[in-house]
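Example (one chain per record):
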Amino acid sequence: MISKGLHICWLFSVSAVLIFRVFLDVMKLQIMRRAIGVLVLLLTGVSLQAHGELDKRIKEITVKILQDPDNTSLFLSRGELYCQHEDYELSIKDFKVCEERGYISDRLNLNFAKSYRLYKDYDLADQYADLILSEQPNHVLALKSKAKSAFAQAKYEQSAALFNEVINHVDVTHTDNYIEAANALESCGTNDCLRSALEVIENGIQDLGELMVFLDKGVNISLRRKDFETAHQYQNKIIENAQRKERKYFQKALLYKEQGKTEEAQQMFQNSLVELESLPNRIKQNRASIKLKNQIQDQLSTFQ
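Predicted structure:
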C-alpha cells in the first residue's frame, strides 16, 4: 500500500511539473506575441497616423455614396482621397465612374493624369494632360504634369523644357518651378545641361531674389562642373545672406580644401570657429554645435 501511494504521489508530482512547464511555455508565448504586437505598432505607427485621417474621410464619403450613389462629385472627391492614400487603382476606378457618367472637366483630367503617372502608366497620364493642352496649350498644371511624367521616365531635357514653359506661363512665379527645372537638367548630367541648369538658377535669382535654395543649388551644380570659382561666388553670397555664418564658413573651407588651397581653408575653418564661439552659450552647448566644433577641430588638426 505504501509503495502504491508513493507511486501515485510521484505520478502527481511529475504531472504537476509538466503542467507547470506547459503553463510557463504558454505564458512565454503570450509575452512574445504581445512584444511582437507592440513592435509592429511602433514600426507602423507613423504610417497609421499618416493615413488615419484619410481612412476616416474615405469611409465618410463612402457612406455618402451609399446614400446618394448618383452623386458624381462624391466619386471625384473619393478618388482624390484614394490618390492621396496611394491607392491609385481605386482612385482611377472612381475617376472612371465620373468619366462614364459624362462628367468632363480639367480637374478630372488632371486627377487622371496624376493617378496614372503615380501608377507608372505614363502614356495614359500624358494623354489626359494632352486633353487639356489641346484646347489650352499654356495650361500650367497640365504642362507641369507632363514635365513630371517626363522626369519619371528619365527624359530630363524634355522635362526641363516643360518646366521652363511652366515658368514662362505661370501668373505668379514660384521657387519650386525653377528648382524642378534645374533638377531635371542636373539629372541630365551633360556639361551643356549643367550650364543650362545654372542659367535657370540665375533666372530664379533675378525673378525672386538671392534665396538660399537657389544659392545652395548653384554651389552644387558648380561643383559638379568642377567650376570652383563660380561655386565660391555662390558660397560668398550664402555667407552674406546668412544670419548665422558658422556652417557657411565651414562649407567654404571644405571648398578650398577640395581645391588644395590649405591656407585659405585653414582661415575659413578659423572663421567658422570664431562665429561658433560668438554664439550664446545655450546654442554653443547644443549637440549640433558641439558636433560642428569637433568637425572644425578635426579638420584643423589635419594641417598640423
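Caption: The chain has 15 helices and no strands.
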